[in-house]
Specification:
heterodimer; A: about 675 residues; alpha+beta; 25 strands; about 40% helix; about 25% strand; B: about 200 residues; 6 helices; about 30% helix
Chain lengths: ~675, ~200
């Protein structure tokens, strides 16, 4: 009796639903409906069916691989004779964390499609019965089931407009074919998935993760890392309970999410990777810790080198003596105070730079080497500093006298002030070093930038600190002489080399004409700086022409980095509002594709939905013009157009009917079907 | 109480120190736990005997499938008869589903007719994390030398339907039989199914 009660309770707890004898069922958490894409089926033509789960907030159902726990929905069909129904098709899942565990599933609503194949020559009505078992969870889980019955009538091919649009929208959420070949390597607990020949350049903020299609190979809750290496996408995956061996293939979905100005677009790619021999490749593109150490070592060495400069070395020993005599014996304290002063000055400068950068990026500037303007600006900076070291012109020589009085003050405060002023006083020589550090730090993350300046400061202050601790080492200081000037001029050449490298980077980004403009600007800058460096009697004589030349250099730099307006795409002519208007006036519909080189979703859409032969044919048949608006360099005209349609970023697809009317806005995740439907609708409008 | 808190803290520290996930063929992670009667258990205590670890949560439908049908209790009796130590582990955090007091844990065992050697109360989740326990039920079998020989699901059909027990391959029962017969355990790693452990 006890057992019977228990069994009955169990059945009850399983949430078995009284069969409505209909296509939908409802529980407290889920509303499940069995739908057909068309109201009628034609014999011998496939018909798509869908299980639509609508979930209460906070509840989720699972993907085919549920992850660390949970169960995917299962369907068992009872069909009339001759009918066949295929497997369920799964949209791209999301990661749902449950404490330290991770599940793969869906929230809100999801439609799982399956293709039904009616047999030949069937007429009349067909009754399809699906027994569905699923697990729905929030914190706790409830296994539920339902019996759904769908009655379909045979009929002629329904008109296009009778198709349920939610089906095509769901197909847009399916993973698509991977652009490139996939293979995987293993080493211990690491599996590295490599996707070759992607042709991608993921922008900052892109997230990439891999969902294996079954339990075993990959641990769902451990972190994954990804990076690009030589055009290959590498994803480091933690091995699961049953890591793959050389005979196994690794299958699943690679989920790529792009962020741009607040919106997230997610696309999945089907992966079927075979085993590749060899060790996984380490992350090379990201600044690894060894790379940072090298940079800091260079900055430190630069700081040390500073002490050998003509404006620093002669006074170095004098400064040390003044510290000692004024300090009255507490040499170490004064040495440290001096070091503190130097550090403060350098970090304040770094802080100022970072604040400016943050302010600039709030204005929408991107201080990245992908921006040609930044590359040109850095190139000019390096050139100017190199010319300064070569002796072409002098920087801030008038500042040398400032602050003498402050350094003569007694006490620790005096030493501190000496430290600060040492930076400024030595500025004719520090400028090139500071400038280079500044240029480097501008493109790096804040922490790295600060560290570079700290390393420079430590290198600069170290000799004086050592001298204050061991006055006897004064004997080790090199004697000032002409060799200092030669060293200074020699040190100009690394800076010239940096300018040359930046020129090479620029050549990768722009065409020959902007490159020539940048070179002309560099020439103008050099001429202007030389002019400044000459001995003029009147200040105006020096300033005016130099200013003119420098302005010319800036103008040329700007033109070198201007976005190319008429970008001739392989297919699709350049967009402009006038072109759209004139094409429409001529009686043609217009399809506009707002895209950008760094937008992966845009590229995928183009590949799977816009460049396919069917779509090209449909465009030609309907005489629809195809225009591309390339937003790679943030063209303001395109920005305005995007905003007018309520968007802050790409992709955006507009289909304008001929002559007049509001454009049809296509979804951001495209499928071929969606585009063909839209074109057919336009044809319906244009007779 | 104080000892319990201190040991939880200690366990937590120990568990965070051990980073690697358990692997079949490697020594099973050493754990220390306190049972519903207040006694302390460590893996070392059972050197020389085979041990089964069963993660459980009495409210989880998948656990109820095996307890309601008597399947789990039968396995436990089997184990006891073969001198295999059976430790049920409750890793639910306080306030989460499955978390019980010591008294309630004992009462549940009596109600359900369960006969584990002990029920370990792991409310800090330390033992769970040590073993990377993800579901309830999640089963581990450790041999008398302290080596992990099986980890994964209790059987092969991942459902909450008791009717499926009869048609499923009983992984844990088979593993115990193979272990006691000195045969290689196969399959040694299977998919654990159930509700997530409520850390």
């Amino acid at each position: 009796m006890h057992l019977l009660t228990l069994l009955l309770l169990l059945v009850g707890f399983q949430g078995a639903l009284a069969a409505d004898a209909g296509p939908s069922a409802q529980t407290e958490q889920v509303e499940l409906t069995l739908l057909a894409e068309r109201p009628e089926f034609a014999p011998d033509r496939p018909l798509w069916l869908a299980f639509r789960f609508e979930l209460a907030p906070g509840w989720h159902v699972y993907w085919r691989n549920p992850g660390d726990s949970g169960e995917a929905p299962r369907v068992s069909w009872t069909l009339p004779d001759g009918w066949k129904v295929g497997e369920l098709h799964w949209p791209v899942p999301e990661r749902i964390p449950v404490g330290p565990l991770v599940n793969y599933g869906y929230k809100g609503a999801v439609m799982l499609l399956a293709e039904a194949h009616p047999p030949d020559g069937v007429t009349g009505e067909a009754t399809l019965q699906a027994d569905v078992d699923w697990l729905v969870c929030r914190e706790s889980c409830i296994p539920q089931k339902a019996r759904l019955i769908l009655r379909l009538a045979a009929g002629s091919t329904a008109a296009l407009t009778d198709r349920d649009p939610r089906f095509e929208a769901t197909r847009a959420r399916w993973p698509v074919a991977l652009p490139g070949q996939a293979g995987y390597r293993t080493a211990g607990d690491l599996i590295q998935l490599a996707v070759r020949q992607t042709g991608w350049t993921p922008p900052p903020g892109t997230s990439v993760w891999f969902a294996a299609d079954r339990w075993g190979p990959v641990a769902a809750s451990q972190p994954q890392r990804w990076h690009m290496h030589d055009g290959d996408l590498l994803v480091d995956l933690p091995a699961g309970d049953a890591p793959p061996t050389a005979d196994d293939r690794l299958g699943g979905v690679l989920v790529v999410s792009e962020q741009h100005r607040g919106q997230t677009l997610t696309r999945g790619f089907v992966v079927d990777a075979g085993f590749t021999a060899g060790p996984p490749r380490p992350a090379a593109d990201l600044p690894a810790s060894t790379h940072l150490v090298l940079v800091l070592a260079l900055a430190f060495a630069g700081g040390l080198l500073l002490n050998l400069m003509p404006c620093v070395l002669p006074v170095l020993s004098i400064k040390a003596m003044s510290l000692l005599t004024h300090g009255g014996g507490h040499a170490a304290r004064h040495g440290l105070a001096y070091t503190g002063g130097v550090l403060l000055c350098f970090t304040a400068l770094a802080g100022l730079l970072l604040m400016l950068r943050a302010g600039g990026s709030a204005l929408g500037w991107g201080f990245q080497l992908q921006e040609p303007l930044i590359v040109v600006a850095l190139m000019y900076l390096m050139l100017a500093l190199a010319l300064n070291l070569s002796g072409v012109f002098a920087l801030g020589a008038g500042l040398t006298g400032i602050g003498q009085g402050l350094t003569e003050r007694r006490g620790t405060g005096g030493s501190f002030a000496t430290g600060i002023l040492a930076v400024i006083v030595a500025s004719p020589c520090t400028a090139p070093f500071m400038g280079s550090a500044l240029g480097y730090a501008l493109t790096r993350p804040a922490g790295e930038a600060l560290l570079v300046f700290v390393a420079l400061a430590v290198g600069f202050a170290l000799p004086l600190l050592l001298l204050s601790l061991r006055p006897g080492w004064r004997r080790l200081l090199p004697a000032p002489g002409p060799w200092m000037e030669r060293l200074r001029q020699l040190l100009a050449f690394p800076l010239y080399a940096t300018a040359a490298w930046l020129l090479w980077v620029l050549s990768q980004q722009v065409g020959p004409a902007p490159l020539a403009a940048a070179l002309a600007g560099a020439l103008s800058l050099a001429l202007g700086l030389w002019w400044i460096g000459q001995d003029w009697r009147q200040p105006l004589q020096r300033r005016l022409p130099a200013l003119a030349m420098i302005v010319a250099a800036v103008v040329l730099a700007a033109s070198a980095s201007a976005p190319t307006t008429a970008h001739k795409a392989p297919d699709g002519d350049a967009w402009s509002p006038q072109r759209v208007a004139s094409l429409r006036a001529a009686g043609r519909a217009v399809l506009v594709n707002f895209t950008a080189a760094w937008c992966i979703t845009c590229k995928v859409n183009e590949r799977v939905a816009l460049s396919t032969p069917d779509v090209r044919d449909a465009l030609a048949d309907a005489d629809v013009a195809y225009l591309k608006a390339d937003w790679t360099r943030h063209d303001p005209l395109i920005t305005t157009a995007l905003q007018r349609h309520g968007r802050s970023g790409v992709p955006l697809y507009l289909l304008y009917p001929a002559v007049a009317g509001e454009p049809d806005i296509l979804p951001q995740l495209l499928t071929e079907g969606l585009v063909l439907d839209a074109l057919a609708r336009i044809r319906g409008v244009n007779p | 109480m104080m000892i319990r808190t201190l040991s939880s803290v200690l366990l937590f520290c120990l568990s965070t120190a051990a980073a690697a996930a358990p692997k079949v063929g490697q020594p099973a992670p050493a754990f220390t736990g306190i049972d519903a009667k207040g006694a302390m258990h460590t893996l070392a205590d059972y050197r020389g005997r085979n041990v089964v670890l069963e993660w459980t949560n009495h409210d989880c439908p998948f656990v109820r499938k095996h307890y309601g049908s008597g399947n789990m209790q039968a396995l436990q009796r089997d184990a006891a008869a073969k001198d295999v130590v059976w430790l049920s582990v409750i890793s639910s955090a306080p306030g989460k589903q499955g978390h019980v007091s010591a008294a309630r844990a004992d009462a549940l065992s009596v109600e359900r007719g369960a006969s584990p050697s002990a029920v370990l109360l792991d409310e800090s989740g330390a033992i769970g994390r040590l073993y990377a326990a993800r579901t309830t039920p999640h089963m581990y079998l450790i041999d008398s030398a302290g080596t992990l020989v099986y980890m994964g699901g209790i059987d092969s059909v991942a459902s909450a339907n008791p009717a499926d027990i009869g048609r499923a391959q009983p992984y844990v029962r088979d593993a115990m039989t193979q272990l006691l017969a000195d045969e290689t355990i196969s399959p040694a790693v299977t998919r654990p199914y159930g509700c997530s452990v409520k850390y």
